[in-house]
Model the fold of this input.
Amino acid sequence: MKSIQKEITNEIIINKSRFITIITNINDINKIKEKLEEIKKTYKDATHYCFAYIIQNHEKCSDNGEPSGTAGIPILNVLKQNNLTNILCVVIRYFGGIKLGAGGLIRAYSTSASEALKKAAITTIVDGYNLTIEFSYDNLKQIDYLLKNIDIKKDYQTNITYNFNITLEKYKQIENELIKLSKIKLKKHITLAS
Done:
């Protein structure tokens, strides 16, 4: 699966209507509503805020007042055709006075999402974990060797605590040694950009 590296915004005009597309990487369904509210505040005079998202096995789309099936589904189809996940695409429409009809709306929303994606840096994502481990100072050298080339948040107290993201493949390679040398305090399944 793929996602985008950073949020992008693109604008196109179709028959005097402005279509502003915002595509953002998002991996928590609970943050969708928050992001939509933020966009509505920024573009408060817009006529419609149509969207689609795919987060792992969950997907949803909304026509937000456009005729049924003319906005959300076309946006969702663009995301699916590009094999994207952990992604939210919002197309904001400022009505320009010319009705586009059902076919015109479908083309407009599809084109808006597609054109925005052309500007995006696409990245492949892989399964992984966010780990927090705790270990004694005696094991510092071995742990650092096991986790070389991994970005780690380190906390030095009575024991040492590391928090880091690791691919599933890398974790499987070092799992036994890591368990032997440290205590895993938190292991949360995540997806990582590779």
In short: The first strand starts at residue 2 and ends at 4. The radius of gyration is 22 Å.
